[in-house]
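Attaching the record inline, Q. Sequence:
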Amino acid sequence: MFASFSTTPCLRATRTRNQRSLAAMRTAVAAMTATAMLALAPSLARAEDASANAQHTLRIGYQKSGLLAIIKAQGSLDAKLKPLGYSVKWFEFPAGPQLLEALNANSIDFGYTGAPPPVFAQAAGVDFVYVGAEPGARHNEAVIVKPDSPLHTPADLKGKRIALQKGSSSNLLLLEVLKKAGLRYDEIQPVYLPPADARAAFESGDVDAWVIWDPYYASAQQALKARTLADYTGLDVTNNFYEATRTFAQQHPAVIAAVLAQLRDTGEWVGAHLSDTAALIAPTVGLDRALVETWVRRVPYGTTTVTPDIVRGQQTVADVFYDAHLIPRRITVSANVPTLPQAASNLAAK
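Structure, as predicted:
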């Protein structure tokens, strides 16, 4: 048999003290945990609020010229959109056609181009809408040649190699310049290149002329002493446009309205602060301040909704490209112009 052991009074007292000590520790830990949770409660609440109010992102496509580049430099749009739960992410494009390709791929929600890119996009079946417009300029885009070029009038372009971005505002200018000179589009040799490649071809002499807009135009005038053969003088000036995906415009009209209102306000500020604008954006676009001021002064601003008169003008642009066999089908511009009452109201308000 195994012997039985009895607990001595000393051991019983020690066990009792240990049990009391463990109970006290548990009570202290519980109190500390409760205190910590109370201290953390505001932070946890803020984290939950931040999660609940996580900002959406408006993806904007812009080019070196235009109000969007100025707004980006100012940082003014973020404050306008914050109450709507939006932040902004910016994407730069060399020209309008590339920007609308990104819109079609749903890589951006909103952008700015000249008149021709949306015509080509609509003809290709891109599902976008016009949401706003800016007035066109007469002297910020041109057909240029080298200073020693033998070409002196638009009629001299016959048979020549001309660099341009296909489907851009330059494409329209070239069509109109040729028409006025009594030339058809098939009587010249278009060389379709984006701006950077077109400049290289122009400098090397691979092309005889270049059709280009600011700031590339102003840069060529300054650095290459390029000579202007023709601009929009004597021609009808077209509008420039803000576009959005149809889905975004339908689902977020308040965001579109807020962006257009900021564009209007910034345009008014630029008109009164041309030198300040040049100083602001020169570092962001990597160009000389004097050069930037040259093209800033050549552009009028005045953001508006797309009015019936603007639609008629844009329809004329579309017809010009169809008649020149540069788009595959005739389009109806008004089919891509939605009614935006909130945007109209915001732009009308002062």
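The first helix runs from residue 9 to 52. The CA atoms of residues 53 and 64 lie 33 Å apart.

More tomorrow.
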